[in-house]
Specification:
- By secondary structure, the chain is α/β, with parallel strands linked by helices.
- The chain folds into two domains: about 80 residues, Alpha-Beta Plaits (2-Layer Sandwich); about 230 residues, Vaccinia Virus protein VP39 (Rossmann fold, 3-Layer(aba) Sandwich).
- The protein has a six-stranded mixed beta sheet, sandwiched between helices. The protein has a four-stranded antiparallel beta sheet with strand order 2-5-1-6. Strands 3-4 form a two-stranded antiparallel ribbon.
- β3 and β4 form a beta hairpin.
């Protein structure tokens, strides 16, 4: 039975309805004697009393069978629906929650300037360095990035794709897909990686770079403490960052083989908090969260945040420490030519023995 055209209905019926229930291929379970409470979930949310003996049934039916099943459930026998659900997915597409505002993102990126792209350029150089270590040539390359000008000279023949919710990538069209500095602002990062995986040919390589982990942890703490002191509450001001373990798990969820995730912490210092915010604006990396405060923020909040920041996170040169944490991801589209892990128990020697043999062979 097609899982996208299937319903599972849980209901209780009088015992005499068992023959009709069997016609739908349902599994029956005697509920017992006495009075039982049954939750009505399809038509009403009230709790009603069902006289025993009753049968509890699980019906797996298609949508076409539902009218007949509904007549049985709500017929003269006054049977009660306990729950109804689709299995295993909902009939319609599920939309991920909008953590980030697309409109605000477009506005912030339009303000970005070339001299503010130093971290994006660093991420590009790191990806290119990692590609040099790969013993394979790539003829069809796609780059998902909000800043195509950064990649124009590095990979001039690559197909540059905007980081929209639905990526403009052909199915199995590329042997290398790079997702550059955009995953941390995606409403559906898993969906982005899945789309990239589907765009890969067998044994194609996926690579990504994004902010994560400890990025702007000092700024987040200073603003949180300042807003709590002044207003007695918090509003989201710094984007929440995924940890490297969570980002690595996305590769596995997308079905990529040989997943690798590593991080690069970039310690920096700034003259003051306003200098840092100017850099973030030049990068196009200021607050775009949907739940952000849209009203005017008083200068007193930032003055207090500057005071807290300088007290808690000052460097030895009386500047403000600031951390940027880049994570680099890589994974391969599955292919039969790739190495496979050995079966458990198939190892014939210990690691110590292997190392000793290698040492003896090198000395000879």
């Amino acid at each position: 039975m097609d899982s996208l055209n299937r319903l599972i209905v849980y209901a209780s019926f009088p015992a005499q309805a068992s023959a009709k229930i069997h016609s739908f291929g349902a599994s029956l379970q005697t509920h017992g004697s006495g009075l039982s409470e049954c939750r009505a979930g399809l038509k009403t949310s009230s709790t009603i009393k069902c006289a025993a003996p009753t049968l509890r049934a699980k019906l797996e039916i298609t949508f076409d069978q539902f009218p007949a099943a509904r007549a049985l459930i709500f017929g003269k026998s006054t049977s009660t629906v306990l729950a109804i659900q689709t299995s295993p997915f909902y009939p319609g597409p599920m939309k991920p929650p909008e953590l980030f505002s697309i409109e605000a993102q477009s506005t912030k990126r339009a303000r970005a300037i070339s001299k503010g792209m130093f971290l994006q350029e660093l991420a590009r150089d790191e990806i290119l360095e990692r590609l040099e270590a790969v013993n394979k040539s790539f003829s069809a390359v796609a780059i998902v990035t909000p800043y195509p000008e950064i990649w124009a000279t590095a990979l001039p023949k690559a197909n540059v794709v905007a980081d929209t919710d639905v990526l403009d990538l052909g199915l199995a069209a590329y042997d290398l897909v790079i997702h550059a500095m955009a995953l941390h602002h995606c409403n559906d990062p898993v969906g982005q990686v899945v789309q990239c995986e589907r765009a890969l040919r067998p044994d194609g390589l996926f690579m990504a770079a994004c902010f994560s982990g400890q990025t702007l942890v000092e700024l987040r703490a200073a603003l949180s403490m300042a807003e709590t002191d002044l207003r007695g509450g918090l509003s989201p001001r710094v984007t929440p960052m995924a940890e490297i373990r969570e980002l690595g798990a996305i590769l596995q969820r997308a079905g990529l083989a040989l997943p690798v995730a590593d991080s690069l912490k970039i310690p920096t210092t700034y003259r003051d908090i306003f200098h840092l915010m100017r850099d973030l604006r030049a990068m196009g990396e200021t607050n775009i969260m949907t739940a952000r405060a849209t009203s005017f923020t008083t200068k007193s909040l930032f003055d207090l945040a500057q005071l807290i920041y300088s007290k808690e996170y000052a460097s030895s040169q009386d500047r403000l420490n600031c951390t940027f944490d880049l994570v680099f991801l890589s994974g391969w589209a599955p292919d039969a030519s790739q190495p496979k892990p050995l079966k458990p128990g198939s190892v014939s020697k210990t690691l110590q023995q292997a190392l000793e043999e290698a040492k003896n062979s090198s000395s000879n």
